[in-house]
Amino acid sequence: MKIVILDAYTLNKGDLSWQGLTALGELTCYDRTASHEVISRAKEADVILTNKVKLSAEILSMLPQLRYIGVLATGVNVIDLDAAAARGIVVTNAPNYASDSVAQMVFAHILHFSQQVAEHDKAVKGGAWGACRDFSLTLSPLHSLKNKVLGLIGFGHIAQKAAQIGLAFDMLVRVYSRTKPQHLPEGVSWQCFDGVIEAADFLSLHCPLTSETYQLIDAQCLAKMKPSSVLINTARGELIDEMALAAALANGTLAFAGLDVLSTEPPANDHPFFNLNNIALSPHNAWATLEARQTLLDITVMNLTAYTNGEILHNQVV
Q1: What is the pLDDT of residue 292?
Q2: Residue 79 gets which letter from DSSP?
Q3: Integer distance in angstroms from the first to the last C-alpha of the chain?
Q4: Which residue spans within the chain are E strands per DSSP?
Q5: Which residues contact 37 (CB under 8 A, 6 or more apart)?
Q6: Any alpha helices (H) in 6-98, and if so which ranges?
C-alpha cells in the first residue's frame, strides 16, 4: 500500500515519529504540495493524507488508484466529499485531538490581556522597573478574572474545556449554541445570542463556519458588546467581519481582541490589524502543541489501521 502525505510539515516538524504509518505501507512525505503538484505526486497512491491541500472532483478523477483519504484535521472542507463517495473513496478525519490545546490558547489570550506579562517584561528589560521609585511597577490596570463573564458562542469539546478553565478562575460562564444543551455543567448557564454578547467581558467563538455564521461578529454585533470587553477567536477567521473589528478596536468601542485565526492565512503584510496595539495575533497554532500533534498522528494511524484490517471506522466521513 502506497501512502502519500501531501503537507506533512505542519503535523510533524521532525519531532514526531512516522513509524506507525511506515508499518502500514510505503510512505512518502512532502512537507508542502502546491495544487499543480498533487496529481504527479499522488498518481500511484492508494492512500492520501492531507491537512489543507485541496482534493477537488477534478483531481480525484485523475487518481484512479486512490482508495482512502485521511484528513489530518477535523474539518473536511478541503475534500469534495460527493466526488469521493461517487468513486468509492473512503474519507476519515481526526476529531477532538486538540481540545485541551485550543482551550489553553483561549486563556493564553485572555491572560495576555488581563496580566500584560509581555508588556511588563519588555518594560522591565528596558529599565523601567529599575528607574521606578516603588517596589512594584504597573503600566496600566491589571484585571482579575473572578466574577467576570466568559461568553461562549458554541459549546462543543473546545468550548466545554474553556468553560472548565473559566470556572476554575471563578468566572461566570454564559453559553449560546444553535441547539440548547439539555444538560450544562454546574456554574454554566445558557442564554440567547444577544444576551451572551451583551453580558460578556470575554467573548470566545467556538462555532463552525457555515453560511449562517459567516461574519457572525459584524459591526452590529460589536456595537452591542461592552466597550471594556475582549473578543477571542480560535475557531475560524471568517466568523468575524475583520474590517468592522479593526474599526471597533481603533475607535475604542471594543477594548481588545485575541485571534488565532484570520479570514486569509497567512495574512497580507498590510492587514489593518497590524497597525493596532489592542489586538494580539497568534498564527493559527493553537492546535499545534506537541501533545495535540501526537494525538492527531495517533488517530490517523488508528483510522488507517482499522481501514486496512476491514474494521469499523469510527471517524469515517464518507
Answers
A1: 98
A2: B
A3: 20
A4: 2-5, 26-29, 47-50, 68-71, 90-92, 149-153, 172-176, 188-190, 202-205, 230-233, 256-259, 279-281
A5: 30
A6: 19-22, 38-42, 57-61, 81-86
Task: Return the active site residues.
Answer: 236, 265, 284
DSSP 210: -
Rounded Cα distance between 13 and 231, Å, is 31
How far does Cα 308 stand from its chain's mean position? Answer: 30
Looking only at the bridges linking them, the beta strands covering 256-259 and 230-233 are parallel
Cell numbers placing 154: 458554541
d(CA 86, CA 100): 36
Stretch 59-67: mean pLDDT: 98
Query: Taking the model in full, what pTM does it have?
Result: 0.94
CB-count burial class (<10 Å; 0-12, 13-18, 19+) for 294 = middle
Q: How many CA atoms lie within 13 A of 261 on its CB side?
A: 22
Q: Residue 218's Cα: distance from chain center in Å?
A: 20
What is the 8-class DSSP label of residue 240? Answer: B
Q: What is the pLDDT of residues 158-210, one digit of tens each?
A: 999 999 999 999 999 999 999 998 889 999 999 999 999 999 999 999 999 99
CA atoms within 13 A on the CB side of 69: 31
The cell numbers describing 165, all together, are 478553565
